[in-house]
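Much of what follows relies on a compact textual record of a protein's fold. Think of the row as the fold of the chain written in a discrete alphabet. An example makes this concrete, so a full record is given next.


***
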Amino acid sequence: MVVLYSKPADPDHFRDYYVTNHLPMVMNWPGLLAWRYSFDVAATNGEAPYFAVFEGDFADAAAMAAARESPQGRRLAADVANYATGGAVIIDYPVQDGTG
């Protein structure tokens, strides 16, 4: 799962709320195997269209769906309105492992 956050009305509030309130909720999300986030989103050309990004790994699509439908997943989804005033785009996709 990837969550792409557009620039919020108050970037400082976003950062503070995200780290202080939202990420602690993420840490208790059932089925989440690993997660990463960044506020340092850059584009190779021009201005980046997003302010922040979150990546979450689940065992498979069924595990992700169960996590999103869990009480914790519903609380996480509802919490987005508390900091992401610019909106959020959530995408998911199966990952193909590869080696060089």
Observations:
- Strands lie at 2-5, 34-38, 52-57, 88-91.
